[in-house]
Amino acid sequence: MLDSDHRQFTLNAMCDIIFMKADSRSATIIEEIEKNVFSKPWNLKNIEESIANRLNYSEIAVIDGESAGCIIYSKNSFEAELLRIGVKEKFRNKGLAGALLKRMFDTLSEDGISEVFLEVNENNQAVKFYNKNGFTEIARRKNYYGNENAIIMKATINTVNDENTKS
Ligand SMILES: CC(C)(COP(=O)(O)OP(=O)(O)OC[C@H]1O[C@@H](n2cnc3c(N)ncnc32)[C@H](O)[C@@H]1OP(=O)(O)O)[C@@H](O)C(=O)NCCC(=O)NCCS
């Protein structure tokens, strides 16, 4: 807990942080983050299609007026899938991706969705980040990325309904 408290403090110490829901006007902001963060970024068309997809949800974090990171996930009535999460290098290790995930978990909890899945290259350093943030491996897809395996991970969320049942 000490670690996450410290991270929260680091994030709060940044002057001004805004989380904004992406719409068609913010596609180019996500494009810029994608280019900055991923070796195989989504192009503008991919991003516009994702934003237009009513099952997808995208949120951008803006720190001191600069786009710093974003998250994209899809959800239906039963489950969600984390599609993208990325933070620009200079904003990393301050808890920003953790905060974006927490906001996703909170939204899904309110929607009564208790399971979130993702797929990641087994060699991606983000696996460590996901493990730290409640995801556990549930399956592997052999040679999914050329000769590298994909890991399927799942996080279980307490929904608002669960919490009401408890009391
Ligand atoms: C993964 C990522 C989103 C984390 O963003 P972040 O804001 O730095 O994450 P947080 O500050 O909330 O958490 C940091 C923790 O995550 C892990 N982590 C994050 N990036 C890491 C990296 N490149 N290498 C190793 N561990 C990493 C670490 O466990 C770190 O904690 P530690 O200091 O104890 O090692 C960011 O590194 C990134 O954008 N990476 C490139 C894009 C990517 O791979 N996205 C995920 C696949 S879609």
Walk me through this protein's architecture.
With 167 residues, this protein is an alpha+beta fold. The protein has one domain: Aminopeptidase. Helix content is 37%, strand content 34%. It has helices at 2-13, 27-37, 44-52, 96-110, 126-132, 160-166; strands at residues 17-21, 56-63, 66-75, 80-87, 115-121, 136-145, 148-156. It has a seven-stranded mixed β-sheet, with helices on both faces. Helix 2 (27-37) crosses helix 3 (44-52).
Which descriptors apply to this entry?
seven-stranded mixed sheet; Aminopeptidase; single chain; alpha+beta; 167 residues; binds coenzyme A; globular; 6 helices
Using the alpha-carbon principal axes, give the shape: globular
- In CATH terms, the superfamily is Gcn5-related N-acetyltransferase (GNAT)
| Rounded mean pLDDT score | 90
**How many β-strand stretches?**
7
How do the strands of the widest beta sheet line up side by side?
1-2-3-4-5-7-6
- Can you tell me the CATH architecture? 3-Layer(aba) Sandwich
Biggest beta-sheet profile: 7 strands, mixed
